[in-house]
Amino acid sequence: TIHNYLSFLRSFGAWIGKPGMVREPQYYVGADSPHAHRSQVATFDHSWQAREVDIEAKIAEVAAIDPWVGLQLELCARFGLRPKEARHFRPHGAVIPRAQAMARDAGAFPEHETFLRISHGTKGGRPRDVPITTDAQRDLLSRLTTLVATDMYVGRPGRTSGQNSSRFYYVIRKCGISKD
Predict the structure, then answer these.
(1) Buried b vs exposed e over 164-180: b needs ≥16 C-beta within 10 Å?
(2) What CA–CA distance (Å, rounded) separates 32 from 11?
(3) Backbone torsions φ then ψ of 95, nearest 5 degrees
């Protein structure tokens, strides 16, 4: 935050003809202050495996409270989807052969022949293709195609996207899944 605000002030100083008016953060908060230096590297592993969380048991716990949220969390775990991508995922027609996959994704995974097209809810609206590698992934996709109506997304039917989003975060917090 300090770096951003000083950058704004530095730009303003350049506009008014005083480019050296704003100094580096260390000048204002001290060289030893943690606010003077940026850290863009993780200092420890934040993953569930590092914290020895039984992922399958946690997914089952979530699914017992709300099966739709359980499916969304399972999509996140099996395919590495973001929560919004999982909630907006449309399983019908999402499995594509290598020939239809985007060149950058197919090139990154030359050993895989089938991919999952993620196009709704993606970051920046850019679609991406994820390789299908395990039987657990294939089983999940099979279950989703039977549970989700054609042209619908993985969310409780009759609820809006916002309602499904609120429900997702409510249930995972209730199960103890949070940054804390």
Answers:
(1) bbebbeebbeebebeee
(2) 26
(3) -85, 120
For the chain, how many residues are written?
180
- Specify the pTM: 0.75
Q: In the numeric block, which tokens belong to residue 127?
A: 């679609």
pLDDT tens-digit readout, 128-142:
999 999 999 999 999
CA end-to-end distance (rounded Å), the chain: 22
pLDDT digits (tens, 9 = 90+) for 24-43: 888 888 888 877 777 778 88
Residue 59 · residue 78 · CB < 8 Å: no
Q: Give the chain as a 3 state SS string.
A: CHHHHHHHHHHHHHHCCCCCCCCCHHHHHCCCCHHHCCCCCCCCCCCCCCCCCCHHHHHHHHHHHCHHHHHHHHHHHHHCCCHHHHHCCCCCCCEEEHHHCCHHHHHHCCCCCEEEEECCCCHHHCCEEEECCCHHHHHHHHHHHHHCCCCCCCCCCCCCHHHHHHHHHHHHHHCCCCCC
Please name the residues in contact with 29: beta carbons below 8 A apart, sequence gap of 6 or more. 2, 35, 36
Tokens representing 28 are 């204002």
pLDDT of residue 127: 93
